[in-house]
Give the backbone structure.
Amino acid sequence: MNSVVETALITAAARARESARKDALFNDPYALYMAGKDGIRMLENFERAVPEVSGLIPAVIRTYFIDNQLKSIADNYDFDQVVLLGCGMDTRAFRTNYLSSGYESKNRSSLIAFYELDHPELIRSKNTRLLAHNIYSPFKRVAIGCDLASDDLHELLITNGLNPDLRTVWIAEGLFIYLEESSVHRLLEQVTTLSFKGSFFLCDLINTSLASDKATEPLRHYLATSGFPMKYANDDPTEILNQYGWYADIYTLRDTMRHIDRFSNMLSSTSTSTVSSGDAYLVSAVRK
């Protein structure tokens, strides 16, 4: 199985586990179907190999963050297109519970186009799982197999119907960490070219301390040996996004966890290796 697919299944399993909690931060009713038994097994193996990542809390927090940001955008703006860069087993093109009831009552769901981009094998695996469980999107969904590190994003999306003159919400969840710096810049340049003024960009990044901290060494080693080395980190997300024409609000993983009572004990503990020294950034940006 391709390592891209494995990583996506592990993340889906973490979302499924979170959704099953009584105090869940979000509800993804399709995550368990996307993860399947193989994804659950992979998550358990991952946690046994790297106990420090138990619960995949950063992945849970970023899903919570992006859901909340999408709801806020939907409450205050109309948008016509959503592009998921490195969509993995994400199910936002199938669930609407991150949108307010008021937004759904506008009957706009069927008018919004979701473009899902990821490795061709992942797209095939995802489509197979969706069909097996009769899961269909209330939105217009366009799934595109590609290589985000090298393919021409402009050509891919325009050919498949994206209209650059409409407001778009871009989501790059758990993506940049695995790209070379040159690919990150190339992607941001293309996204900006395709973005109408007032479009939104939601993503996450890690800082250089988290990418080199001794405490995260077991995680980095596991990812590298699994074919997914950490490649990109940035200490100033505001600067890089501003460089490409975006106003960015930056939140840290630590600060977001502090706002959630469930994680207060973890933050005060010295045993939380994955956030012990470095930090991750959660970004919500708007096109100038």
Notes: The first strand starts at residue 81 and ends at 85.
